[in-house]
Automatic annotation (TrEMBL):
It comes from the Bacteria. This is Aldo/keto reductase. It comes from Mucilaginibacter phyllosphaerae. GO terms for cellular component: cytosol. GO terms for molecular function: oxidoreductase activity. Pfam families: Aldo_ket_red. Keywords: Oxidoreductase. Coiled coil: none annotated. The keyword Hydrolase does not apply. Residues 15-307 form the NADP-dependent oxidoreductase domain. SUPFAM superfamilies: NAD(P)-linked oxidoreductase. InterPro entries: AKR_Detox_Biosynth (IPR050523), NAD(P)_OxRdtase_dom_sf (IPR036812), NADP_OxRdtase_dom (IPR023210).
Length: 339
């Protein structure tokens, strides 16, 4: 396992992040504690050190399992990321959202479940469109100054909000967001319109969730296997099927699994990108870990890019139109009318 710096920080994390949303059996699915321990052991033995969880995952069970595991391990080896925002109880109207009150309450509860004194990376889980971004940043910075959180990150939030936040943080001397967690895969590339260019500008690492599109990109649905994706999901529509077939063809050429191809595509991007791979079975994790040894040729990457390309919309596509010419002398755009 190779290590990368997380955003504009000196924090070293493994090139694959272990997603733990499935740690716990609530809802009739997931891994029990013993299996979760086995998965984390295999991940650590392979050099993995980056764990991703949230206060809401399995109603707190994910954090509890990780806490029990870390209490038997070298805590400082692991980079532990969790999240706050989503409602984890019904005791009061402030038990959800991005507010400072919910942030402080949620972090204290997470620390107890995780059996640790500090959280390495705290994500805002999802933007609530209510709380001022300066309230969020001041709260995160206070937690960092208290030593309860080491780094701040953000997930599932509009690009303009993140950009405003990091700019304000730089101006005020507060801790900036170093990572951006969003949905990103061969089947979901809309983050390339605004979010990823913004992350590149601020030097943030992108940590994609669902890099395998819920398993659709493994090809198992095309092979007749059943899973948790509903039949009418966009992850199984005609476009998704055509993209998945390209993944399957390349996997067959290289003699690797489809998940290796789909994951390595995200790891081969021009920006810092560390996919989050979830596992509820040890065999799933062991297969995903083999991704780090797979190399996609420029030709394979071009095939995947072409099969999964999207319309960037305005202004992305506008900048790429033939009607927009770059003046090499002044760097201005010359508009050429098409008649």
């Amino acid at each position: 396992m190779k290590y990368k710096l997380l955003g504009r920080s000196g924090l070293k994390v493994s090139e694959l992040c272990l997603g733990t949303m499935g740690f716990g059996t609530e809802g009739g699915w997931g891994a029990d504690a013993a299996t979760s321990f086995e998965i984390m052991d295999a991940y650590a033995n392979a050099g993995g050190n980056f764990l991703d969880t949230a206060n809401i995952y399995k109603l707190g069970t994910s954090e509890k399992i990780i806490g029990d595991y870390l209490s038997t391990q070298d805590r400082d080896y692991f980079v532990l990321a969790t999240k706050y925002t989503l409602k984890d109880n019904t005791t009061n109207p402030n038990a959800s959202g991005n507010s400072r009150k919910n942030m402080m309450r949620s972090v204290e509860d997470s620390l107890k479940r995780l059996k640790t004194d500090f959280i390495d990376v705290l994500y805002l889980h999802i933007w609530d469109d209510i709380t001022p971004i300066d309230e969020v940043l001041r709260g995160l910075d206070d937690l960092i100054k208290q030593g309860k959180v080491t780094y701040a990150a953000i997930s599932d939030t509009p690009a303009w909000v993140v950009a405003k936040g990091n700019t304000l943080a730089e101006l005020m001397g507060w801790s900036q967001f170093i990572a951006l967690q969003v949905e990103y895969s061969l089947l979901a590339r809309t983050a390339e319109r605004e979010l990823i260019p913004m992350a590149k500008h601020f030097g943030m690492t992108v940590t994609p969730w669902a890099p395998l599109a819920g398993g659709a990109l493994t090809g198992k649905y095309l092979k007749g296997d059943r899973g948790r994706i509903k039949a009418d999901s966009k992850r199984l529509d005609a476009r998704a099927e055509s993209i998945t077939k390209v993944v399957m063809d390349i996997a067959q050429q290289l003699g690797v699994s489809e998940s290796h191809v789909a994951l390595q595509w995200t790891m081969s991007k021009s920006f810092s990108c560390i996919p989050i791979v979830g596992a509820t079975k040890i065999d799933q994790l062991k297969d995903n870990l083999k991704t780090v040894d797979v190399v996609l040729s420029p030709g394979h990457i071009a095939m995947l890019d072409d099969a999964s390309k999207i319309e960037l919309g305005f202004p992305g596509d506008f900048f790429n139109e033939e009607a927009v010419k770059v003046n090499s002398f002044g760097g201005f755009y010359d508009m050429v009318e098409k008649r």
